[in-house]
Specification:
The protein has 432 residues and is α/β, with parallel strands linked by helices. The chain has two domains: 7-30 and 300-427, Lyase, Ornithine Decarboxylase, Chain A, domain 1; 38-296, Alanine racemase (TIM Barrel, Alpha-Beta Barrel). 30% of the residues lie in helices and 25% in strands. Strands 4, 14, 15, 16, 17, 18, 19, 20 and 21 form a nine-stranded mixed β-sheet that branches. It has an eight-stranded parallel β-barrel with strand order 5-6-7-8-9-11-12-13, surrounded by seven helices. A three-stranded antiparallel β-sheet has the order 1-2-3. The longest helix has 21 residues, at 217-237. The termini are far apart. It binds ligand LLP. Residues 65, 67-68, 86, 109, 169, 208, 211-212, 247-250, 291-295, 331, 391, 395 line the site of ligand LLP. Ligand LLP is lined by residues 65, 67-68, 86, 109, 169, 208, 211-212, 247-250, 291-295, 331, 391, 395.
Length: 432
């Protein structure tokens, strides 16, 4: 009935998540409130891990892409479930360190890592650094030399694959700020340079074609192109590549019309392509990495709001205002992303009118859901926006000096705060 499979309705007609009544959660912890279903996050981790074992003989590692939702809590879950981690900044790496994440299972990404960030990664023995460009390569080589280390690296490659998704989150084509391209020989040249260096060791190549992709073909095409490139590196440079990192990007269901593929199916199909290409090109079967972010946490999240006002502008639009908005979920204002909402205290009511759910920020574009069919919504209702686990908290801001909501993890009827609600005092902490 709901876009996320972990939701249901109880006898009081309230929305239930992780066996917790959403209305009670809102009462106990206040709103806005990020709720994360820990059991579903763990289940998603296991789905990926099991598929990797089943279809690729365990010769691979699933990395949780931390940018989707980076907290100590989620880092710990990923570690406990045997996943690795994709980090993209010193801050994400710091969080992983504080969560005691095994450093050798971390890949450090980013198109412009600073010298300080590279230093931090090398000092802390991060498993792989995914090198984006020649400047970074030179910088990293000298930092590793200073520390007397040889840093394992992979290269971020643009495979030239067109992923069918929002242009803001497409990254596989040549016109992208990320990585080096195959078409113009840039990728080949940078690897040739790297193999001559003493303090980096090229172990793998990486690509990430985009995010929220439903179509499996671009993923298969990317795997094929990358395996071909591995073949070329062997033929022309006598370089054996041990590892292939295929990034993340698997789509999730935000609305009824979204139709994602089962995640283990991605792994099955991609494994077949990699195996076939390894035979075709006469290269050894690489150890593979995948980096799902959104598909691990998005569906496990729900954001609860309290409705504060209803503005019915006759023949124009009906606005429902809630106590959060673009500061806790900027995805509508950035990408016009679509979501599904439920009146948590009247969860099985049928839709009867078209409304727009607006946030409380001083910005006309501060919308959470535009022109959606909803049941009647009243002031005081608890509104639940579904599938907000990814790229909500991690992209939140203090715009208008609005404190970030708390995050509560629910599991089998229990609920605990995993991120405290920010206070006004937090907001001025760095002001002098
Ligand atoms: N690996 C790399 C190198 C990435 O850049 C990303 C996402 C991922 C993995 C994880 O992709 P996922 O499985 O989560 O799609 N803020 C945007 C999404 C940006 C994605 C950035 N990179 C949004 O809210 O839709």
């Amino acid at each position: 009935m709901f876009v996320s499979k972990n939701l249901s309705v109880n006898g009081e007609n309230h929305l239930v998540i992780g066996k917790n009544d959403a209305v009670s959660l809102a009462k106990e912890f206040g709103t806005p409130l990020y709720v994360l279903d820990e059991d579903l996050v763990r289940e998603n981790c296991r789905t990926y891990k099991t598929a990797m074992d089943k279809y690729y003989g365990g010769r691979g590692l699933v990395l949780y892409a931390n940018k989707a939702l980076c907290t100590l809590f989620t880092c710990r879950i990923a570690a406990e479930e045997g996943l690795g981690l994709d980090v993209v900044s010193g801050g994400e790496l710091y969080t992983a360190i504080k969560a005691d994440f095994p450093m050798e299972k971390i890949c450090f990404h980013g198109n412009n890592k600073t010298a300080d960030e590279l230093e931090m990664a090398v000092e802390n023995n991060v498993g792989h650094i995914i090198v984006d460009n020649i400047y970074e390569l030179e910088r990293l080589n000298s930092i590793a030399a200073k520390h007397g280390k040889v840093q394992k690296i992979m290269f971020r490659i643009k495979p030239g694959v067109d992923a069918h998704t929002h242009s803001f989150v497409q990254t596989g084509q040549i016109d992208s700020k990320f990585g080096v391209a195959l078409e113009n020989g840039e990728a080949f040249e940078i690897i040739e340079r790297a193999v001559s260096m003493e303090n980096v060791k090229v172990t793998g190549v990486h690509c990430h074609i985009g995010s929220q992709i439903f179509d499996i073909d671009p993923f298969l095409k990317a795997a094929e192109v990358m395996m071909d490139f591995i073949g070329d590196l062997k033929d022309k440079l006598c370089l054996e590549i041990d590892e292939l990192n295929l990034g993340g990007g698997y789509g999730i269901r935000y609305t009824e019309s979204d139709d994602p593929i089962e995640y283990d199916e991605y792994i099955r199909h991609v494994s077949e392509v990699v195996k076939a290409m390894s035979e075709k090109r006469g290269v050894k079967l690489p150890f593979i990495y995948m980096e799902p972010g959104r598909s691990i946490v998005a569906s496990a999240g729900v954001t609860l709001y309290t409705v504060g006002g209803v503005k019915d502008i006759k023949n124009v639009r009906k606005y429902i205002s809630v106590d959060g908005g673009m500061c806790d979920n900027p995805r509508y204002i950035m990408y016009e992303s679509e979501y599904t909402a439920v009146v948590a205290n009247n969860a099985s009511a049928e839709p009867c009118e078209t409304v727009t759910i607006a946030g409380k920020c001083c910005e006309s574009g501060d919308i959470l859901l535009k022109d959606i069919k909803m049941p009647e919504i009243r002031v005081g209702d608890t509104l639940a926006v579904l599938a907000t686990g990814a790229y909500n908290y991690s992209m939140s801001s203090n715009y208008n000096r609005i404190p970030r909501p708390a995050m509560v993890a629910v599991s089998d009827g229990a609920a605990k705060v995993v991120v405290k609600r920010e206070t006004y005092e937090d907001l001025i902490r760095n002001d002098l």
